[in-house]
Design a protein that fits this description.
Distance between the termini: 45 Å
Structural class: mainly alpha
Number of strands: 0
Number of domains: 1
Strand content: under 5%
Helix content: over 70%
Order of helices and strands: HHHHH
Length: 188
């Protein structure tokens, strides 16, 4: 009888240890999943910052290329994308990526709405320059003047707003990083 009780005690102890190991394993797995999600958010926000900085560079290059007509009176087509929905930023802006950014950082929504008009006007100004250039060489100076006034102002607006968006997303990314690091330290 005493042997039966000892064997039951051993079985019970092993079962209890098994349950404890299972619980610790599940807690560890949950912690890893939370850490993975946190780091995915960090990577996402850092990627957004990189993408937006690249879009700013793209627009600077776009304006530079559009301005090449100033040195050559024979150019009547700027050779740049004039549809604001088809440039890299436009594809991002009117696609799912923008929605993901707004979900992750809701404070960007107002800025993203704000950037739409100057971005449209920037591309529209290229169409206007081309229309002026198509009138002939005697309108070349008018196109140069329009380019200098209109296109540069719209670019400046786009750059300023992109800068604000990058700042907001960067700050958010820093908070997410800090929270992720704290989470990992708390799991140790």
């Amino acid at each position: 009888m005493r042997n039966v009780k000892l064997s039951m005690k051993l079985i019970s102890s092993f079962l209890l240890m098994g349950v404890l190991v299972l619980i610790v394993g599940l807690i560890g797995q949950y912690g890893l999943k939370i850490s993975e999600q946190s780091f995915a958010r960090v990577i996402f926000t850092e990627d957004v910052v990189k993408q937006l900085l690249q879009r700013e560079i793209d627009h600077l290059n776009w304006v530079r290329k559009a301005g090449q007509f100033q040195r050559d009176e024979n150019i009547i087509s700027l050779g740049v994308e004039t549809d604001e929905r088809k440039c890299a930023f436009g594809k991002w802006y009117y696609g799912e990526d923008r929605k993901s950014v707004e979900m992750e950082t809701p404070q960007t929504k107002a800025l993203l709405i704000q950037i739409e008009d100057p971005h449209k006007k920037l591309h529209a100004s290229a169409r206007e320059v081309e229309e002026i250039l198509k009138k002939g060489k005697k309108f070349h100076q008018e196109a140069v003047t329009f380019y200098g006034a209109s296109m540069s102002q719209h670019l400046k607006s786009v750059q300023e707003i992109l800068g604000e968006i990058v700042k907001v997303v960067s700050e958010h990314s820093s908070v997410v990083k800090k929270n992720s690091t704290s989470l990992i330290k708390n799991q140790e």
